[in-house]
Structures are given as C-alpha cells and as structure tokens.
Write a structure and sequence with these properties.
With 310 residues, the protein is α+β, with helices and mostly antiparallel strands. 30% of the residues lie in helices and 32% in strands. A hairpin with a 4-residue loop joins strand 9 and strand 10.
C-alpha cells in the first residue's frame, strides 16, 4: 500500500468530501462539512499561509492536516498543524508523513514554534511525543443530547435587555465583529489572537457556511450587542455546535452569556437538531460551569502540544 501526501485541491468536491469524512470519523465532536472545508481553503487570511493537506492510500483519502501561521497573534513565528487519520487506517505511515510535510512547509514560512491539538489517548500522545512535541494546556469536548435534554425554560431578559438573532445584523454586522474581537482576545490559550481585520472576519466568520445566523443568539443592551452564542450547524447530520459564547467585559457577571446560550439551544432544538457539541479550555471555569448547568457532559479531551523548531 502506497501513501502519498498532497494539497487539497480548491473547488474539488471529492477532495472536500474525503477530507470532511476523515475529520468526522477521527473527531466526531467537531462539525465539518465539505462546504466548510472548501470555504476555509478559499477564504483563509493571506497572512496565515493556510494549507489543507490530505494523505492518500491507493487513491483514497485516509488522513488530513490543517496547517498555517497564527497570523492574528501578536507574537510572530507561531505555526499550527492539526493532523487526523481515519481511525480504521492508522499505523500505515499517513500520520507521520503528514507531520513531516507540514513541518517542512511551516519552517519554510518562517515558523519557529509549532502547536498541535492531540486527542488525549495513549496512542495519540505517544505519537506526538515520538515526533518531538511536548504537552501543554488541555481542552474538553462536551456533548448534549439535545433531543432529550431537560433544558432550562426560556428566560425573560432583564429590563432594558433584548435577545435577538444575528440575522437582525445582516445589513451591518460590524457591532458583532467588535464584540467577537473583544471576547476572543480574552479566551485562554497558548496562542493569543487579535481581530483587527473586519473584511477578513466577514469572509471567514460571518459568511462561513456552518454559521446559522437565525439560531445565533445576540443579547443587546444600551443599544449594542453585549453577549452572544454563535451557532454552527451541520444540517445533513442534524448536529449543532456552539462555536463561541461570550460577553463584553463591562457586562460580565450578569448571566448574559447563559441567557444567550439558552436562547440558542432552544432555537436549535425547535429547528430539529438532535445533538449539541461545544468545547472549552480546561482553565475556562465560568464557561464549563455554564455548560454543566445546561447538562453538557464531557465526551473527550484534547491536549495542545508544542514543538520548537531548530
């Protein structure tokens, strides 16, 4: 059996379907569709030098890698590679070949430190360590049986506060960009992020095929968005994902993130979605507590690994 690694071909549906299929089997807790794969490739920021690699065994896609630079980080020279192999096709060299190809590419782009998410299992961690990566922070994947969960009843917002859908902001989403940038800047993680490019955010986030603006809940106070829960959906598999939930700094501690997430979950269930997924850094205690309140249960864990080149 011969394994090769190549770049995913832009606009080629068969490549996108193969990529998405491997991701769903290897990482069922994250939403991936062929449309999202092609969108991510077509609309990545030029500074990210983003590439999507596939490993083929006798013409069949058996492994994937997302590779690029953390262009929105204030610290230069940081790269990422996230490698996943079909669980039924491991131990055939696909993962190692993807790692070597990705590292060579990132080194050529000036990366000095590489970050990779690795599922928290003995085989996965051993693989990362064999390739020179050391463990860092961790994160949880959480699942909610949305079809049968006893969700808290819909909440009435406090006086002067409204809950709207993101679709209301279709003519001018800039206020949502500003809120997203503030929330993202405060997210715990190894690699900081600063959103400053509105046009890039429109292309990559606002127009992303997974984003469901009708289900995304936005809390408005003092005439502006102050909290939100962004909804991603995979319609074909009736799966819903909380892409990001957060509150503006000046409005934290008032239960507004919980208000937004509750509204979004009720909308998702009414729309026929049966499973809900989300993810949290293990150090994000407030969000983990909110998700536990809704009934989410931890279904997997991943560990960020780091390698310094040179």
């Amino acid at each position: 059996m011969t394994v090769i690694v190549r770049e995913l071909r832009p606009g080629v549906r068969a490549d996108a379907e193969g990529f998405a299929g491997v991701r769903r089997r290897a990482l069922p807790f994250m939403l991936t569709t062929p449309e999202s794969v092609l969108h991510d490739l077509a609309h990545s920021h030029p500074g990210a030098r983003h590439r999507q690699l596939v490993a083929e065994e006798d013409g069949e896609i058996v492994g994937t890698a997302q590779v690029g630079l953390a262009h929105d980080s204030p610290e230069p020279g940081q790269g990422y590679l996230n490698v996943y192999v079909d669980p039924e096709r491991t131990r055939r060299g696909a993962g190692s070949l993807l790692v070597r190809t990705a590292e060579a590419y990132l080194a050529g782009q000036g990366a000095a430190r590489l970050f990779a998410w690795v599922l928290d299992g003995p085989a996965h961690r051993a693989f990362a360590e064999r390739h020179g990566y050391r463990p860092s922070r961790s994160a949880h994947f959480l699942r909610l049986d949305l079809a049968n969960a006893a969700l808290p009843p819909p909440q009435s917002p406090p006086p002067g506060v409204e809950v709207r859908s993101a679709a209301v902001f279709a003519d001018d989403p800039r206020p949502l960009f500003e809120l997203d940038a503030e929330v993202t800047a405060d997210e715990p993680g190894d690699v900081g992020a600063e959103f400053t490019d509105y046009e890039a955010w429109l292309a990559q986030t606002w127009r992303h095929p997974l984003l469901d603006r009708e289900l995304t809940a936005v809390v408005v106070a003092d005439g502006r968005p102050v909290a939100f829960s962004a909804a991603h959906t995979d319609r074909a598999h009736r799966r819903y994902g909380s892409a990001m939930t957060g509150t503006a700094r000046a409005f934290r501690g008032r239960g507004l993130a919980k208000l937004a997430k509750n509204a979004a979950l009720h909308r998702a269930r009414a729309a026929g979605y049966t499973e809900a997924f989300t993810g949290n850094d293990t150090g994000n205690g407030p969000m983990l507590a909110i998700n536990a309140w809704f009934g989410y249960e931890i279904c997997a864990r991943e560990v960020r690994h780091v390698r310094d080149l040179g």
